[in-house]
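LAB NOTEBOOK - FOLDING QUEUE
OPERATOR: T.R.
BATCH SIZE: 2
PURPOSE: Compare the predicted structure-token outputs for two unrelated chains run back to back under identical settings.
PRIORITY: normal
REVIEWER: second-year student, initials M.K.

ITEM 1
FIELD SEQUENCE / FIELD STRUCTURE:
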Amino acid sequence: MSLWLILIIVGVVLLVLGIAEVVGQALLWIGVILLVVSLIMTVISRGKSRV
């Protein structure tokens, strides 16, 4: 299981349960940032492999 998915799941669970809203939001945003960065890196690496 990838790190970004774990962070998003844990963040959502914490937000839904209302246990630690600040921590949940932080984990959620970190997971989203990691997801976006990994998607960008995948697109860049696929572009280089075709050339």
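ITEM 2
FIELD SEQUENCE / FIELD STRUCTURE:
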Amino acid sequence: MAPKLIKSMPKAVRRGVIVFISALALLTSGMIGAAAENYMRDANSDNKVAIRGCVVRFDQRDAAGKTVPRIYANNAHYCVGVTSVSVVDGDLQVLSNNDEPVMSLVVSSDETLTRYGISCGASGGLASTVIRCYDRTGAKVNADSPRMYGAGSNLWLTWFSWQDV
């Protein structure tokens, strides 16, 4: 009876039923619960956490007048774990020498970009992080836009990654 009923269902409904039954079977067998627990850690002094951080400055322009973001590192501004920055499809792409799981990722606009009404958020965080910026109206501001340019326009980036080595 059940096989006939399942065969009479539309294909999309059949797939949904199969996925639901499979997930239910995994959950009741403990496989999903066990996998989820592997991503939880207790806070303690033995945790293997790596911190990456860097300042990206927007104080240079190319011949066409586009802003060219760059790593800003000197004796007062260290850059740890970031290998390069570039603009890809208007977004800031930050490459890193670390591809461990991310626990936290923070992008902070400095006072100059904040005054311009620009705030940014990140996606990813392993070896590649994509940062997208917006103005106060919610309109996207490309990382190479003249609106990002300024002698002190900075994004401060910080990652906390789990080192499971």
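REVIEWER COMMENT (ITEM 2): The chain has two domains: 2-37, 49-162.
FOLLOW-UP: none requested
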